[in-house]
Protein: Resolvase
Amino acid sequence: MKNRREFNRMIEECKARYINLVITKSISRFARNTLDCLQYARELKAKQVAIYFEKENINTMDAS
Structure:
């Protein structure tokens, strides 16, 4: 995602554990395609960073 400089900065800050929760309007606003979304969600979850998708009411740290 080379054209999303601020998104990439946010991901790096999450990985460095400066951020522990990302709140976004919807899945489509977070990532441009499903594979990218899943990749970032897995990477961030491994670092104990949650993503909350408001429209879908999904929190990646929920057990279900």
Summary: The first strand starts at residue 21 and ends at 24. Strands lie at 21-24, 50-53, 58-59. The chain has three helices and three strands. The chain has a mean pLDDT of 93.
